[in-house]
Amino acid sequence: MPTAVNETAQALRVGFILSRQFTLSAFSLFVDTLRLASDELDRSRRVRCDWEVISSSRHLVTSSCGVSLAPTSSLGDPKRFDYLVVVGGLLNVEQPIDHETLAFLRKADAVGVKLVGVCTGSFVLASAGLLKGHKVCVSWLHHAEFKNRFPDLTVVSDQIFSIDRRRATCAGGSSAADFAAHLVRKHVGIDAERNAMEVLQIGKARSQHDAQARNPIDCTVGDRRIRSALLLMEQHIEDQLGVETIARRVGLSRRQLERLFLSETGKSPRNVYTGIRLEKAKSLLAHTEVLLLDIAYDLGFGSGAQFARLFKREFGLTPTGFRKQFARQ
Questions:
Q1: What gap in Å lies between CA 200 and CA 205, rounded to an integer?
Q2: Of 160, 205, 228, 291, which has the fewest beta carbons less than 10 angstroms from its beta carbon?
Q3: Domains of the chain
């Protein structure tokens, strides 16, 4: 049961580390949730929560949209924070945070401070070796890149954030507010969480098990479990999952999953999965020069002939015909 609001002490202390080219929306939604939970209505006093943007220098940090922020505090003693939140951004930045800040994060871990990766902050923590043995949540957009860079880590993209012992990772975007609301509810109280969500015009904070806002098929899907199943299919195009495995991962039996898919999409899970693989093939045909046979085998089709037959049935053209038509556009 959520604790009552503590009126006499700051119940939640958060330090933010902004990587170079960080995502402004993820940071602002997170910190504004804390600001609104810290006081009544929109008075913004640091009554129940405190936060700092910390850095190894006083230089401005520029976000991916070009807006720059000034740190409010030096690194100092990590024990003054309950959580350290690394806000990531563009993945093509060579050194998102400096060596001094990396050492600070390792020191924080050694003294028991909880570490959080928001947006691509998970990449920063993983690069520092601070996510070993932990489940990592990243955006569906960055799932393949994370798997490529960190093949030994367990990564998921069918939920908006993940909490695994003293680590938390969050997909970013609006889910930064949901994760911040989770911390507020846990450390400050349900009334503080409600105040923050209402002022932010968010009807209700989502839980970590809610599916990310991604729909890889051209069909409106309402059921959270079907949305999670679709994300799993998209993330496992090359290393395909069985229908039984997908059902288990979303908390359903195979028969329940098949009934829900038929109700929501008009198709079986297997047929939808094939459609997602064909859409991936279509993208590869349009934007790469990968050989047709390699595309067929990489995406799990039994043969080039089977791939061509299914592709033509779905799009009205053979793979070769589609590639030629796209090249003429």
A1: 11
A2: 291
A3: 12-199 (3.40.50.880), 215-329 (1.10.10.60)
